[in-house]
Amino acid sequence: MCAYRDEDPRLHDLKTKIRVVPNFPKPGIMFQDITTLLLDPKAFKNTIDMFVERYKGKNISVVAGIEARGFIFGSPIALAIGAKFVPMRKPKKLPGKVISQEYILEYGRDCLELHVGAVEHGERALVVDDLIATGGTLCAAMDLLERVGAEVVECACVIELPELKGRERLNGKPLYVLVECFECCQ
Amino acid sequence: MRVVCCSNSSLAVTATLPSFPCLGPRFLPRIAIPISIPSSAIRFLPLRSTASPRQITTMASKNAQDQQDSRLESISSAIRVIPDFPKPGIMFQDITTLLLDTKAFKDTIDLFVERYRDKNISVVAGIEARGFIFGPPIALAIGAKFVPMRKPNKLPGEVISEEYSLEYGTDKMEMHVGAVQPGDRALIIDDLIATGGTLGAAIKLLERVGVHVVECACVIELPELKVQP
């Protein structure tokens, strides 16, 4: 079951374009697949527009996109609001000097990396990903940006799974999502 | 600083060259008549050498391509070269510094959009992961679908796969079943073309389902690496 906020007609259309794939990547998970949204040029454009309308004129100098689906949404947002785009990547993908942040998964750990020098002290940053679940990845992204002295203005995702309480993990940082989905984990 | 330009003589170029806009008088368009890659791949510049640090010429130009020249120059100078990544001997062309230059990044996208907007392209296929940075803004601007071409086991649901060769071993690329339709006109995007193995696999995947691949477009070419048979 999905809810949408504020009755923006664009949101209703967006929600219908997201495909749910059961038991991916493992049994019991109802995977929220945004690739079907990307196949509808108008819906994809509306998605980007809704973010751009929110962030244009807010003096955001950096959009950090989380590999890999965060790149798809983060890059057009960055271009539209005139901000730098900074990819946050899995280990060993970024060449040159990086800083790393480890984070906890359900089973085990993972790591996110950011280029040294990509973001400067005092910059205002937006973090973008397609979806927030437990918030572990977004948290790691925020930690990295704050470690280099940036101010994380907001985290922005297309989809939230509120039952996984990712919002609470963001240390009080605002989270903005377009669509909430419930009963996605069994 | 000087441009290292590769000559056209290494390619079999026949027939009439289409009148595509040249991206700068120094940079000659190179057109490969396909043997193994079954579409005309016009490779975009700037040309880069793998052997030596990047060098660029500042050309005084008095013709109408001035605007394009200056955009290309700043794009080229925004790309960072990292020696010995991912392994010794490789001069890695790092586009992340281009993404930090808001004007140069916008110019990069604009150059592609200007080329493709009136070509009836219905699909932009972007290759994971850096193709996901350039592909979506192009797709949005020209009103095309965006289709991610991914490493194995990333796409949920039904996929089709194409295996391709690496220097050591093989890798696989996947695309969603039903993402594209027979008759779709596609543009494939990646940040860089090296041996062409990845782009070749993407072309095959799309053509297997009846898509017409109009062109492959990359920010950077490494012309000294030959296209794989």
TrEMBL record, chain A:
Its main location: cytoplasm. The keyword Membrane does not apply. One of its GO terms (molecular function) is adenine phosphoribosyltransferase activity. Residues 41-167 form the Phosphoribosyltransferase domain. It holds the Pfam family Pribosyltran. Pathway: Purine metabolism; AMP biosynthesis via salvage pathway; AMP from adenine: step 1/1. It catalyses: AMP + diphosphate = 5-phospho-alpha-D-ribose 1-diphosphate + adenine. It is found in: Cytoplasm. Keywords: Cytoplasm, Glycosyltransferase, Purine salvage, Transferase. It comes from the Eukaryota. InterPro entries: Ade_phspho_trans (IPR005764), Adenine_PRTase (IPR050120), PRTase-like (IPR029057), PRTase_dom (IPR000836). Its EC number is 2.4.2.7. GO terms for biological process: adenine salvage; AMP salvage; purine ribonucleoside salvage. It is an enzyme of class 2 (transferase). GO terms for cellular component: cytosol. The keyword Cytoplasm applies. Belongs to the purine/pyrimidine phosphoribosyltransferase family. Homodimer. This is adenine phosphoribosyltransferase. It comes from Cajanus cajan (Pigeon pea).
UniProtKB/TrEMBL annotation, chain B:
Its EC number is 2.4.2.7. The keyword Cytoplasm applies. GO terms for biological process: adenine salvage; AMP salvage; purine ribonucleoside salvage. It catalyses: AMP + diphosphate = 5-phospho-alpha-D-ribose 1-diphosphate + adenine. Residues 103-224 form the Phosphoribosyltransferase domain. GO terms for molecular function: adenine phosphoribosyltransferase activity. InterPro entries: Ade_phspho_trans (IPR005764), Adenine_PRTase (IPR050120), PRTase-like (IPR029057), PRTase_dom (IPR000836). The keyword Cytoplasm applies. Keywords: Cytoplasm, Glycosyltransferase, Purine salvage, Transferase. Pathway: Purine metabolism; AMP biosynthesis via salvage pathway; AMP from adenine: step 1/1. It is an enzyme of class 2 (transferase). Gene3D superfamilies: 3.40.50.2020. One of its GO terms (cellular component) is cytosol. CDD domains: PRTases_typeI. It comes from the Eukaryota. It is found in: Cytoplasm. Pfam families: Pribosyltran (PF00156). Belongs to the purine/pyrimidine phosphoribosyltransferase family. Homodimer. PANTHER family: ADENINE PHOSPHORIBOSYLTRANSFERASE, ADENINE PHOSPHORIBOSYLTRANSFERASE 1, CHLOROPLASTIC. This is adenine phosphoribosyltransferase. It comes from Cajanus cajan (Pigeon pea). The lineage of its organism: Eukaryota, Viridiplantae, Streptophyta, Embryophyta, Tracheophyta.
